[in-house]
Design a protein that fits this description.
Length: 158
């Protein structure tokens, strides 16, 4: 596969076995044609943000892909369904949540997809793991703004 576009994917889960689910999801993504996993952050534990239920386990993956942004989003949504994701109400607890955070430097605003993710700069559970694998993508002021959201290292990826 040629290099492709560098995209960042936020991963989270708070039902079932969240850490194992995130590892499983990354392994499946790595098997997709047109996608190469470049880096994955450590796993972080966070209290639900604008949601309820058990604590979340979160991570961010950097991938290189030849898929278009809508193609990548559709594959992520299908993977969520494969993991048993249900959407009974907004911000319900979930077996797997995959967000396309950035797709290169693209600015996309369609009914199905907004890139960069519109709320990523408000969420420590995105910014802390993103800063770990792509420090040039997160400013110190962004991290300071979310420092009180309580992100804790849960487990190293490796």
């Amino acid at each position: 596969m040629r290099q492709g576009v560098c995209a960042y994917i936020g991963l989270g889960a708070n039902l079932g076995l969240p850490a194992q689910t995130l590892r499983w999801a990354v392994a499946l993504m790595a098997s997709w044609p047109g996608l190469r996993v470049h880096a994955v952050s450590d796993l972080y534990r966070t209290a639900p943000h604008e949601a309820q239920g058990p604590d979340f386990i979160n991570a961010v993956a950097a991938v290189y892909t030849t898929l278009t942004a809508p193609e990548l989003l559709n594959k992520l949504l299908a993977l969520e369904l494969q993991a048993g994701r249900e959407r009974p109400y907004r911000n319900a607890p979930r077996t797997l949540d995959l967000d396309l955070l950035m797709y290169g430097d693209a600015q996309i605003a369609s009914a199905q997809l907004r890139v960069p993710h519109p709320r990523m700069l408000e969420r420590a559970f995105v910014l802390v793991p993103l800063a770990q694998i792509a420090p040039d993508r997160v400013s110190e002021s962004d991290l300071r703004r979310v420092k009180n959201q309580g992100v804790q290292l849960f487990e190293s990826w490796g």
